[in-house]
Each structure stands twice: as C-alpha cells, then as structure tokens.
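Structure first, sequence second, as always.
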C-alpha cells in the first residue's frame, strides 16, 4: 500500500485504479437479473437494477456535506429499495480518508444521480491506495415507478 501525500490530487490515483477494476469487471459476461441468460458487458445502456439476494444487511455510506477535493465517480449499478429510495454502488477509497454524497435531479421521465467522493476533514496525513465498493441511499421526491435512472452529467467545477 503506497501512501499518498495530503493534497487535492490524492483522490485521483484511487479513482483511476477503481475505474480500471470496474472496467475490467464490466467487460465480463454477467447474469441477466431478469433471468434471460447472460448478457454482454459491452452495452452502453445502464445496468438494470439489482437485488441483494444474499440476505446480508447492507451498510450504506452516510452522506457528508463537509468533503474537500470532491469528484464525481460514476456509480456502477443501482437497486430499487422502496417506492422512493434507490441504492447506488460506486468505487471509493478508505472510509478513514474518503466520504461521499449524492446529487439528484428528477422529472416525470427520469432520475439522474451523481455519486460524489471527497476527502473527509479529519483524514490522516497519508492515505493508502486501498479501494473498495460502497453504496449510498438516495430518496426521490416522487415514486421511482418506471422512470429511467441515469448518470447525472456534471461539468468539472460545477458540483451541486
């Protein structure tokens, strides 16, 4: 584990490494959640929502409002938890160093969500480049229904 010096760019290596791992995993065949066999990972469509079939309790990230050096990290999949809640999974770093939050926009036709990762104020001076997958709950104003769920496109420097 290589330490990264405190600074605005130390989140980049973690995100880049996790993006590589996510990309490698997306290229593999995966089971269609609808039971229709395997599907190729080369589609540009967003994956269908998944369900936790393990029965294990899921511990979601607590959204933070005190992050610095924030960057949008694309979520890898989502699941419908209730009529007005979605759980998004995304790559991040050690919870000692990195926190997260989500930004949401919705209308009658769709729900757009960005997962945002940044440094916590009490992060240690040196953070290891340990990656992990995390999840965060998002509550919608209206029931999810059959609306499309998409990535929220955010211009650099315009984080909501």
């Amino acid at each position: 584990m290589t330490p990264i010096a405190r600074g605005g760019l130390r989140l980049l290596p973690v995100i880049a490494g996790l993006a590589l791992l996510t990309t490698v995993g997306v290229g593999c065949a995966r089971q269609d959640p609808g039971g229709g066999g395997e599907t190729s990972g080369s589609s540009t469509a967003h994956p269908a929502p998944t369900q936790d079939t393990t029965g294990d309790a899921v511990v979601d990230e607590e959204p933070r409002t005190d992050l610095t050096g924030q960057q949008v990290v694309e979520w890898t999949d989502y699941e419908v938890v209730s009529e007005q809640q979605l759980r998004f999974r995304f790559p991040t770093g050690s919870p000692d160093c990195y926190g997260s939050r989500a930004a949401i926009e919705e209308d009658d036709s769709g729900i757009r969500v960005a997962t945002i990762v940044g440094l916590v104020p009490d992060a240690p001076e040196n953070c290891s480049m340990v990656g992990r997958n995390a999840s965060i709950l998002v509550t919608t104003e209206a029931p999810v229904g059959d609306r499309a769920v998409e990535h929220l496109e955010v211009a650099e420097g315009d984080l909501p």
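Margin note: The helical segments are 11-26.
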